[in-house]
Structures are given as structure tokens and as C-alpha cells.
Design goal:
The chain is globular. It contains 2 helices and 10 strands, in the order αβββββαβββββ. The chain has one domain: tt1808, chain A (Alpha-Beta Complex), CATH 3.90.1570. Strand 2 and strand 3 form a beta hairpin. The chain has about 150 residues and is of the alpha+beta class. About 20% of the residues lie in helices and about 35% in strands. The protein has a 6-stranded mixed beta sheet, with helices on both faces. A two-stranded antiparallel sheet has the order 2-3.
Length: about 150
């Protein structure tokens, strides 16, 4: 357990920051410009990106610097996270998309194959997420629980 007052998003942020090597970095709620028609801006729960290419003065970052978009599913965003956001991220060429479901805790990782995401695996508490593309990480989804 990472901390009694941290939620799943913060706990995943800590897990990722401990494992990612520079220039990769995990960031929370970063504006992402998706040039897919119709052009839109999305703010994923987390992104893994190339920190050396972030434009600090910009309100939105280009998808070219993002390696993985992570969405923490909630009842209000469940459908949008599973279809709309993942489709737009795939069309924008973002190499990875992860969805974290909370009840029960489950991490589903996807990698871009041509213009769509293919599932790499799904893991629950007590199992080890083992992802090697587009970034390499290992963690137990149970560590994300408060």
C-alpha cells in the first residue's frame, strides 16, 4: 500500500514515476490536443510522455509526445473511456491506452496495431501487470487501492 489518503490515480502516478526512466514521465490531467476530426482536446487521468518534449507554455500537448494514455473508469465516464476516448487516441497514433476499472480493481492495457488498439492483457489485485510496450512497467493492481 502506498498511502492511506491517496486514491487510485495518485497511487498509479507514484508507481509509474518510480519505474519510468527519463525522459519518460507520468503526469496527471495534462491537456492533450487530438487532431482527429473533429479536432478536440481531452484531459486524460494520466499520461506517460516524453518529458523532454513537453511545451510548458502550451495548454495542450501534441499526441506525438505521448506514449500511453491512462483512464480511471468511473460510472460517469465508463462508456466514453471504452469507446470514444480510446478510438480518438488510436486515430491520433498514441502507442498505448490503459483503462483502470475500480470495482473490482482491474488494469487493461492496449497497444496500437495499425489504427486500433489490441489488448495486451488484463490484471486484477494479486496479479502482476507486465507490460513491455510501449513502456516497460510491473505492478500489482492491488497497490492502486486506497
Amino acid at each position: 500500500m502506498l498511502g492511506p489518503c491517496l486514491g487510485p490515480t495518485d497511487n498509479l502516478l507514484v508507481v509509474l514515476r518510480r519505474q519510468l526512466e527519463p525522459p519518460l514521465r507520468a503526469n496527471r490531467e495534462l491537456g492533450l490536443s487530438l487532431p482527429v476530426p473533429p479536432r478536440s482536446t481531452t484531459i486524460p487521468d494520466l499520461v506517460i510522455l516524453d518529458a523532454a518534449r513537453v511545451r510548458p507554455e502550451a495548454n495542450e500537448q501534441p499526441p506525438a509526445i505521448v506514449h500511453v494514455v491512462v483512464e480511471i473508469a468511473s460510472p460517469a465516464t465508463y462508456r466514453k473511456d471504452r469507446t470514444v476516448k480510446s478510438d480518438k487516441c488510436a486515430q491520433a497514433g498514441i502507442p498505448g491506452y490503459w483503462r483502470v476499472e475500480l470495482d473490482p480493481i482491474r488494469v487493461i492495457a492496449y497497444a496500437l496495431r495499425e489504427d486500433t488498439y489490441a489488448e495486451l492483457g488484463a490484471w486484477t489485485a494479486g496479479e502482476t501487470v507486465e507490460v513491455d510496450e510501449p513502456v516497460r512497467v510491473r505492478f500489482d493492481p492491488g497497490a492502486l487501492l486506497p
